[in-house]
Structures are given as structure tokens and as C-alpha cells.
């Protein structure tokens, strides 16, 4: 027996058709609603730009689905999946309801997403039972993640794996289980709060940048519609009912037509060349454009894909996959894309070979601008080309629990968003029970306990059986850049290369949600040119304008870095520091308050020893290893307990091992 869920049971939402503008965003959502195999949508934009409104209102346009009444996995009555205990009992009832939109909060734990062991069943009945998570709830519906860039990486990884495979695999706490998890994935984010890692961004089929509404009349129309909706949501929805019904019918018709849509080899070659011309990595873009152009043709009511269909979806598939310089906003010129497409089509029609573009003309070396500071000749050097550095993954030096946010240092965390890695006897009141470890601790005593207890529980527990979960996750760092801008750094354009390396490390910090600070030293002074900030872009601006000249007050710069790190540890104890020294280490100016005739380099070494005692992780990058015959940068690195890395080896595979080696030096120090 099938029943129909009344629309009155659904909350009134803002109609999708009533959203002003944002045509590219709406098209991306509609195409994925027709064909979830496209791979989902990532919507990038500032707050207050209708991202969440569009995602929530899309569910009302999807066709109703038929499910087994009460099934937590939304099984189809005619074909429940093997292993569904609920449907195995032949329930015999089904219901039609609207496709569900499941919202995943930023604070969601991995257990809440994938599912977990049902504690109540385990204790009362003594058997293992799986409690479904959010992925089960989202099956055959929409999974919406606001601020997806703020989720822990391992949670994002689980989500994207399930979205790609259409199935959720769970192996935890003695349970091995899987269930279907096919859903339309929608993620929204504000890029100013940190970006997704490139490998995660690429997993979203389409990506769109929110268009800012600048026309006064259109902005006024947004306000009119919003005020009308808030004043009387039911009447507003009724007024837009005809448009909503028409859009819903168009989506349903496109779903039915999609299997009949064909794409010939000429158009496929066009797609392949378009992706190659835009230098996208891998083949995901080609596949996504293939599927999306087919879907767009079906949405238009056609069964043949044209080059114009490809152009309509190409920008959304290429935008987030194009190679670009660090901190550049993703952008793709629509007119340039169309011109390129026309050239490719003309080339195919004439069957002419691809033009030989020849070798790219190498860029001219960055020039410097002369300046003066306190009578000292100074230059402002350009910035060298940035590059991708190896992952600087660290391990926390202590066993302290921290808040789980960030992507660099592996640490114990105090909240439930971390990965469950072990169990321990609780020191205080339990907030995160490790049931599997508790069961193992209690199981040897069950026969004896049953002899002197008269309750009907399948499991008899004592307070000393209880175990608490140990969780680990990545946390962000405070990365303090100590940049030498003295005169010796200008020799052979060392400052150009040094700036390029710092920019590359800033890109790494941006992707890992680190805070950054920058101290520059030259002449007789050290200056905090950038206090701790969440904006590496601002650090880039300060670095670009940093002049070079004068002597090398390195000891004072190290002392200023130590003072800054100690202050930040008091304000934010959950953020471990990482000191990155970029210098040839030719210290020739002592501490401001130090002994005047003391050796400046020895003063710098004493500050390094103090930093090491403070458990400050460090890296020393040497921009002039070949001319540094006295090993000054090496001595600074050794005294800090960090790792010495020649600047030209920053791209090498040794960078990750170098940081790990620094940890071993600290742990084995006598």
C-alpha cells in the first residue's frame, strides 16, 4: 500500500524560481538534479549571496520518490539493498515523499556522517547493531554542506568517496557494513575563510563563482521579494507556484530524455582539446563536460549534443581545475573561451594540424627599484616564480589536547570531530565513550557478574570498565616567517628567490588554514611587518614591498620572534608555532640590550637555544648555500633543533622527511 505525504507537512521554503539572477549557479544545480552522476556542485561566494537559499529550495523541484515506510535508508520498495534489516521483514507499506535535503553541520563527527554502533542495543541485547548516519539519510536526496572548506579533511574525504562510489563503507568498532549512498552533493564556501585542498576541489563536478549584483534595480528586486516572502511565506509561494511547477516538469522530462541523448566523436574531440588548451590536470574535466553537456541538451529538450552545449557548461567544469598562481582568484574569460572554441572547431573542420606554439618565451628576471632607509641604499626586488612545496606535515611535540581545526600538525584533539585512534582510562567524567574498548575490558568478567546481579541486561558494566576515546586530527599552526632583507640578500638576486620561496610557503599555509606572521630584519632593526593574521594575501603584499639593504641584525629578529610566539601561545594555546627562518645567517648586529662587544652570531645562537627550549618547531632555509662556506645557516638550524634546507631543494622530496627528522632530533635530545 502506497500513501502520499501531504505537502502541508513540508515547511515553506523560498521558491527556487524566485531567486534573482545567479543564472550560472541555478543551472549548475539543475543539471546535477537531473543527473547526479555529474558529481555535485561547489558554490563559492561571500555570505549573503543566496547560496544556502538556492540549495535548500532545489529539493522542492525534484520528483517525489517512493520509499519503504520507516526505512532509515530510503529503500525503494521494489529493490531494497541486500543487508537492510528493516526491509528484510517484508514491511509491505510504502510512501511517496519529497526528496530529502540533509544538511551537514561543520561540527559533524565522522561517526555522525558514516554511522556508528548502537550503544543501547549493545548493552541491552548484547549484539552489534549499526546506527545509520547522515549519508544514509541523504540517500536518493540532497546532501548540503555549508562552509565545506571548514570541515575536517578526513570527513570531506569520506563524503567525496561516498559521492563518487554511491555507497558508504563502514568499518569501525567491530562492525563491517555498507549501504547505498547516492545523493546530489552541494557544497558552499566563502573563499576568504580558507580554500579547499586542490584534490578535494577537483572532486566536485561543477564549480561556480557567485555573481555580485551591482545594478540598483536588481538589488531592489531582491529586497522586494525577500520582504514579501518574510511577510507571508504561503502567499508568496503560491504566487510562484506556476513557475515552480513548470521548472519541476522540465527537470522530470529531462531525466526521462537523458538516456536518449547522444554525443558524436567530433564533439568529444572538441571537449578533449578544450580541456587540453586550458591545461587542466587529469581527465575529470573531460568526463564532467561530457556528462554535463548531455544533461544540458536533455534540459533543452534535445537528443543531440552541440558544441554550444559544451560551451554552456565548460566554464563551470574548468573554473576550479585550471592551473593558476597562488592567491589568484579563479576566473575564466567567457569571450576568450568562445574564441578558443571557435578556433578549435575551425581547425577540426579544416582537418589542419594543431599550430606549433613553440617554446614559451622565458620571463625576464624581476627588476629592482632603488629606495633609501635611514641613509642606507635599498632596493625593492621583485618576487621569484612561486612553486608547489612538499607537504610540511608535523606531529605535535606534546600530548596536549587541542581544538581540531586546520591541516598541518597531527595532535590529540578535545572534540568529537577527530579520528578515533585509541582508548584510555578516563581521568575525569567521560564525554566520549569508547564502547568497543569498554566491551573488551568488561567481557572477561561477565560470567562472574551474572552470578550476583539480577537485572536483565545482556552486559554488566562496572565504572572501572569504562574507556574514553582518544582522537587525533590536524590542527593549524602559527607560521612565523623571519625574513632577512639585509644587503647580503641582494647579491646575485638572492632576495628574488627568497621571496618566491616565501610566497610558495604562504600558499601552503593558506591551504592548511594556518595563521601567519612576518618579521623582517635589515640595517640595525627588526620589525614585525605583519602581526598574526588569517590572510596570507596580506603577507604577500607586505613581502612584495619589502626593501633590501643594510646590515643583518639576526639576533634581535630571533628575539622578537620568540617574544611574538610567547604572546600568541598565551592568547591561543591550541595553535602550535612553526618558525621559518629565511636568511644567509651572516649576523653582524647584536641585540639592542645585549653586551655591546659580544659576538652578534653567538648572541643569535643563544636565542636559538632558548627557542628550542620553548619547543618551537623550526626550519632554516638557506638562499645562498654555495657561498656560505662557514655553514652559518646550518649552525642556526642545528641550534634551533630544526632542519637546514638549501632554498633550491625546497621542492625536493626531502622536505617532508626533513621536518620529521627535526621532531626526532628534539625527542632524542639529551
Short description, anyone?
The protein is 37% helix and 18% strand. The N and C termini lie far apart (76 Å).
Shape: globular
Largest sheet: 6 strands, mixed
* Number of extended strands: 24
Alpha-beta content class:
alpha/beta
What key phrases describe this protein's structure?
single chain, five-stranded parallel sheet, globular, disordered C terminus, alpha/beta, disordered N terminus, six-stranded mixed sheet, 670 residues, 24 strands
Q: How would you characterize the overall build of this protein?
A:
Mean pLDDT is 78; it is low at 1-10, 352-366 and 652-670. The chain has a 6-stranded mixed β-sheet, with helices on both faces. The protein has a 5-stranded parallel β-sheet with strand order 5-8-11-2-12. Strands 15-16-18-17 form a 4-stranded mixed β-sheet. The chain contains 22 helices and 24 strands. The chain is an alpha/beta fold. Helix 11 (265-277) packs across helix 12 and helix 11 runs parallel beside helix 13. The termini are far apart.
Helices and strands in order:
Layout: E1 2-4, H1 23-34, E2 41-44, H2 51-58, E3 65-68, E4 94-97, E5 101-104, H3 110-114, E6 116-117, H4 119-125, E7 130-131, H5 134-138, E8 141-146, H6 153-165, E9 167-172, E10 175-180, E11 183-189, H7 198-201, E12 206-209, H8 216-231, H9 233-239, H10 241-257, H11 265-277, H12 284-299, H13 307-318, H14 334-350, E13 369-373, E14 376-380, E15 394-395, E16 409-412, E17 419-424, H15 435-442, H16 446-451, E18 468-475, E19 478-484, H17 494-511, E20 515-522, E21 525-533, H18 536-544, H19 554-571, E22 577-582, H20 600-613, E23 617-622, H21 632-640, E24 643-646, H22 654-667
Parallel strand pairs: 1-4, 2-11, 2-12, 5-8, 8-11, 15-16, 19-20, 19-22, 22-23, 23-24
Antiparallel strand pairs: 3-4, 6-7, 9-10, 13-14, 16-18, 17-18, 20-21
